[in-house]
Amino acid sequence: MDKGADYRCWDELIPDALGLIFRNLSLQEKLAVVPRVCKSWGKVIAGPYCWQDIDIVEWSDMAEPEPDTIDRLLRMLIARSSPLRKLCVAELQNDLMFSFIAEHASSLQTLRLPRSNISDIIVEQVAGRLSTVTSLDLSYCANIGARGLEAIGKHCKSLTGLRRNMHPIDMDGKLSQEDEAHSIAITMPKLKQLEIAYLLVETESVLEIISNCPELELLDLRGCWNVKLDEKRLKEKFPKLKVLGPDVVDHYETNNWEFCSDFSESFYDSDSFEGMWDDDESLELRFYEGFDDDTVYDWPPSP
To answer: What is the pLDDT of residues 194-216, one digit of tens each?
Structure first.
């Protein structure tokens, strides 16, 4: 390279600038690629800037890790975040991990916990620590009900987005979820987007939500077969509101798990990580080519 060429080495960038760049990389790139480039990059990736937004939903879906592995990974990443603004993870196995997340949620804005095994009891206990959350996903969380949703609504005063989609299999044996719809209606007036696909609700409950959430712009009712809305009247009274369903017109005909690649890469290497994971050297993570987590389930078509 000519001496007069106007180039600067990447490793000469200040750590804060590198951290902002690395935040845009995927989980695999941040954990398996960047630390191997050089020591300076390894130090940056171990710092707080890269982990303010943590999204391991795709990895937890595709890699099918042991529950203990998810917990250990979350604890390490959350401990490095400062502050934690976004957290997305599927299939939390217990209330203890949810409580740990709440302890570090002072700046949390987006929280996605689909298919997690957490209960109303723990949600009621720690909801007060989630007051900054504006977007929440509790889809397919079968052990959460009206009590948990009410606790969320009472403490998350700035909540504008809620995903509470369910799957028909999870609804087997349940007669109604009208109480959940009522909890949403009376405690979440600032909602702009609400997804309650396949929730067992009636027309009256949905109208209560619409009436009590004047800022609502999107309402997903796909699979809510007992809801019968007067579309013309609804459009006249709430012109900004877009309603999807209850008919399901975009279901998937095939099982999306068939598209998973069988490729995996174990990337744990103590030399490459320069002690980044010294607190748990037994942790091994695997990555797979994947799909959008929203298409995990094959929802049935309209009856």
So the answer is: 999 999 999 999 999 999 999 99
Chain mean position to CA 39 = 32
Q: Do 200 and 176 touch, CB atoms closer than 8 A?
A: yes
Q: Please state, as a whole number, how many other Cβ atoms lie within 10 Å of the Cβ of residue 26.
A: 13
User: Which CA distances in Å does 118 have to 51, 145, 189?
Assistant: 24, 10, 25
Backbone φ and ψ for 112, nearest 5 degrees, come out as: -120, 120
What separation in angstroms does the CA of 26 have from each of 58, 64, 119, 151?
A: 10, 18, 30, 33
Is the overall model pTM greater than 0.85, yes or no?
A: no
Give percent helix, percent strand, percent coil of the chain, each to the nearest 5.
40, 10, 50
DSSP secondary structure letters along 111-167: EE-TT----HHHHHHHGGGGTT--EEE-TT-TT--HHHHHHHHHH-TT--EEE----
Tokens read off for 186: 């009376």
Per-residue pLDDT of 126-165, as tens digits, reads 999 999 999 999 999 999 999 999 999 999 999 999 999 9
Give the whole-angstrom CA distance, residue 163 versus residue 93. 19
Distance between CA atoms of residues 72 and 65, nearest Å? 11
